[in-house]
């Protein structure tokens, strides 16, 4: 995994609540057997007409908005556990998703793919939507090391939470499997002393 | 310390805890299907790893398979390749695989329980969010992503932050015609789709105790739709009677040992939950959904909320959702014509669901305007349907049985509801496009689905 560095970037606003993983990547795109190529189908049904033409009113098709940060409404990533949702977001080029609330499995999947989910207050989120509404070139800074997010248009900052272990993984570009594999002896010891019969 | 059931099982599975971080949790049972596993197996190959404990993983093909002519090669080339890849991975890594046409093939959350692979006190994971189903047996069961599938394959462990605990009590008795599906839709309506995010839920109370195993599975299955990591129910005689004699169930002395342990699996008197909610079961009516998430539910004779009842930020999503569904704020849905009926999925694709549906349609006829897809959750369910003669009754009423699979629950195969059409569905998700691009889903119980299938409209059963 790539190491996570501080980002200052313009951002893409998606002020919709309860964006579920079926919207992020519809099921018919889950037939692949590799992790590549999902970015093209990110939000496919909102983004393209049946004919494959881009829908002009969807934010990803609006050239004034761009950047490595997606800012979305409350309860982002609910629904299916498909990690393809995280692959699609990463594949498209987002490194951070900001919302006031994330579904659990999506949050894990994002972190396991080097995407940082940043939880902000409703107020802060509302201001981000306002700022980018006024000026599509508005930027956000996300500093993982110091755990804050800043709206560079208003100058407001907010701290965010992240599990210290996950933080270190992101900063160092390590993943959980590296950790688990280094731990085999403990697993075997546990198996010998399992408290039940299976 | 008085412990909750969740605490007891969790604590018994912690191998170690990462400093300032998650717990390393040992996984007893792992279920795998074709859609969320190929990249995990590639990962193992890339790292030159074997499957650490092959006996604890079970594979089935379900999400991306046709529900007709399963004896022929899958027509869609990409789907066929995905299913073949699972078979190849099973061979290469030495894993048990119930592929197409195998007598035990079926939806992953149906076959786990029906073969006794799912047992109380276990930790069970699968790359599918409805893994919460297995919690009905008093297990910690939850969905994981593909990176985590790779973790389990390579180490039989995953790293997890301990969720908070929540108890949902259903006191009193359910009315006739009200099922676990209605309990769940009622609960998600009350608590919203994010209402249990961060929590692991235990279901308790008289109405839960009175549920059969199949109904308990339906209730636990839908836990994820209110954001919960999972849901579980303390095992009791109902649970033990269900498991006894099934293929993977402990036998002889091992059964006695297991029972001694299983009987300890309940929340202690006075155990404290981070959150506790109580519902009066007698107030629950048959439910339907009107919107594009499972929290947008209402009693079947109710009305969609007025726009003025929705708070600020939610308005955009609410209006978008109703526009997609072709409904108006304040509208009643009883009597609305519908086009499709889907009976199936890991929520309501078990034998009892087929019994309820068949019982209702017996002696009646399917409405001419309705296309009905009746998809058993597994081959064993289908065989049972035939053994009980339900297929004959269904046939007389104008219904046809399909072959098992996830089918129109996620519409990865050809079972897609066309754009703009209404489907009364016993599955779990009414998201935009879930049952096909543009499809409009109304979630309901098998009984409500049966009533819609014969009247052609949304009808109180
Ligand atoms: S039936 Fe639906 S919810 Fe259940 S495992 Fe299949 S796709 Fe997932």
List the helices and strands and how they pair.
The complex is a heterodimer of chains A (198) and B (461).
Chain A: E1 7-14, H1 21-24, H2 44-47, E2 69-72, H3 84-92, E3 96-99, H4 104-111, E4 116-119, H5 122-134, E5 139-143, E6 148-151, E7 157-159, H6 164-172, H7 176-181, H8 184-192
Parallel strand pairs in A: 1-2, 2-3, 3-4
Antiparallel strand pairs in A: 1-5, 5-6, 6-7
Chain B: H1 5-11, E1 14-17, E2 23-26, E3 29-32, H2 38-47, E4 57-60, H3 77-93, E5 96-98, H4 108-114, E6 123-126, E7 140-143, H5 146-155, E8 157-160, E9 164-171, H6 180-191, E10 199-204, H7 206-209, H8 213-221, E11 230-232, H9 237-243, H10 252-262, E12 275-280, E13 287-289, E14 297-299, H11 314-325, E15 340-343, H12 345-348, H13 351-361, E16 371-374, H14 379-387, H15 390-396, E17 422-425, E18 440-443, H16 446-455
Parallel strand pairs in B: 3-4, 3-6, 4-5, 6-7, 9-10, 9-12, 10-11, 15-16, 15-17, 17-18
Antiparallel strand pairs in B: 1-2, 2-8, 13-14
Helix pairs in contact in B: 2-5, 6-8, 13-15, 13-16
The structure holds iron/sulfur cluster (SF4).
Iron/sulfur cluster binds at residues 62-63, 107-109, 128, 130, 345-346, 406, 409-410, 427-428 of chain B.
Could you explain how this protein is built, in words?
The complex is a heterodimer of chains A (198) and B (461). Chain A is an alpha/beta fold and 198 residues long. Chain A contains eight helices and seven strands; from the N terminus they run βααβαβαβαβββααα. In chain A, strand 3, helix 4 (104-111) and strand 4 (116-119) form a beta-alpha-beta unit. The model of chain B has no long low-confidence stretch (mean pLDDT 96). Chain B has 461 residues and is of the alpha/beta class. In chain B, strand 9 (164-171), helix 6 (180-191) and strand 10 (199-204) form a beta-alpha-beta unit. Chain B is globular. Chains A and B meet through helix 4, helix 6, helix 7 and helix 8 of A and helix 2, helix 3, helix 5, strand 8 and helix 10 of B. The complex binds iron/sulfur cluster. Residues 62-63, 107-109, 128, 130, 345-346, 406, 409-410, 427-428 of chain B line the site of iron/sulfur cluster.
């Amino acid at each position: 995994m790539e190491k996570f560095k501080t980002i200052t970037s313009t951002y893409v606003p998606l002020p919709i609540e309860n964006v579920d993983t079926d919207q992020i990547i519809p099921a018919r795109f889950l037939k692949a057997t590799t992790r590549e190529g999902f970015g093209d189908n990110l939000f496919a049904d909102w983004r393209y007409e049946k004919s494959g033409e881009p829908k002009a009113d969807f934010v990803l098709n609006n050239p004034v908005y761009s950047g490595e940060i997606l800012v979305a409404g409350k309860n982002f990533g609910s629904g299916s556990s498909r990690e393809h949702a995280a692959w699609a977001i990463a594949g498209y080029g987002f490194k951070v998703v900001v919302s006031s609330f994330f579904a659990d499995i999506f949050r894990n999947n994002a972190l396991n793919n080097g995407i940082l989910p940043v939880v902000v207050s409703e107020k802060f989120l509302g201001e981000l939507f306002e700022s980018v509404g006024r000026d599509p070139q508005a930027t956000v800074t996300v500093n993982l090391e110091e755990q804050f997010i800043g709206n560079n248009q208003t100058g407001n900052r907010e701290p965010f939470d992240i599990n210290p272990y996950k933080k270190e993984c992101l900063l160092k570009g390590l993943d959980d499997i590296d950790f688990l594999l280094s731990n085999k002896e403990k697993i075997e010891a546990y198996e010998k002393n399992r408290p039940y019969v299976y | 310390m008085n412990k909750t059931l969740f605490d007891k099982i969790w604590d018994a599975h912690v191998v170690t805890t990462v400093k300032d971080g998650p717990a390393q949790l040992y996984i007893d049972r792992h279920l795998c299907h074709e859609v969320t596993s190929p990249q995990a197996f590639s990962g193992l190959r890339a790292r030159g790893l074997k499957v650490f404990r092959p006996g604890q993983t079970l594979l089935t093909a379900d999400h991306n398979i046709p529900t007709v002519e399963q004896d022929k090669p899958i027509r869609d080339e990409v789907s066929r390749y995905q299913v073949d890849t699972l078979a190849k991975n099973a061979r290469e890594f030495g894993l048990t695989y119930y592929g197409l046409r195998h007598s035990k093939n079926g939806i992953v959350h149906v076959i786990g329980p029906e073969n006794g692979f799912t047992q109380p006190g276990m930790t069970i994971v699968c790359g599918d969010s409805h893994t919460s189903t297995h919690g009905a047996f008093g297990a910690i069961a939850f969905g994981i992503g593909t990176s985590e599938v790779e973790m389990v394959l390579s180490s039989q462990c995953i790293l997890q932050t301990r969720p908070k605990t929540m108890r949902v009590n259903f006191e009193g008795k359910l009315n006739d015609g009200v099922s676990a599906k209605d309990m769940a839709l009622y609960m998600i309506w009350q608590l919203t789709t994010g209402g249990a995010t961060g929590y692991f839920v235990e279901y308790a109370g008289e109405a839960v105790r009175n549920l059969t195993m199949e109904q308990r599975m339906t209730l636990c299955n839908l836990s994820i739709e209110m954001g919960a990591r999972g849901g579980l129910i303390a095992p009791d005689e109902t649970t033990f009677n269900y498991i006894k004699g099934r293929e993977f169930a402990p036998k002889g002395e091992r059964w006695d040992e297991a029972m001694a342990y299983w009987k300890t699996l309940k929340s202690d008197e006075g155990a404290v939950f981070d959150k506790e909610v109580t519902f009066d079961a007698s107030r629950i009516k048959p439910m339907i959904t009107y919107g594009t998430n499972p929290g947008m539910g209402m009693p079947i004779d109710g009305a969609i909320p007025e726009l003025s009842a929705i708070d600020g930020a939610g308005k955009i999503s609410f209006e978008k959702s109703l526009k997609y569904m072709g409904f108006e704020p304040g509208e009643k849905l009883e009597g609305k014509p519908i086009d499709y009926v889907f009976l199936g999925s890991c929520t309501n694709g078990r034998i009892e669901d087929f019994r309820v549906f068949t019982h209702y349609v017996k002696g009646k006829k399917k409405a001419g305007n309705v296309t009905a897809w009746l998809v058993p959750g597994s081959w064993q369910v289908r065989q049972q349907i035939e053994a009980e003669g339900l297929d004959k009754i269904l046939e007389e009423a104008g219904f046809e049985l399909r072959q098992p699979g996830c089918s129109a629950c996620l519409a990865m195969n050809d079972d897609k509801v066309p754009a703009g059409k209404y489907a009364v569905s016993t599955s779990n998700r009414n998201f935009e496009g879930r049952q096909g691009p543009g499809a409009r889903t109304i979630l309901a119980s098998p009984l409500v689905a049966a009533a819609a299938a014969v009247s052609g409209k949304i009808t109180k059963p």
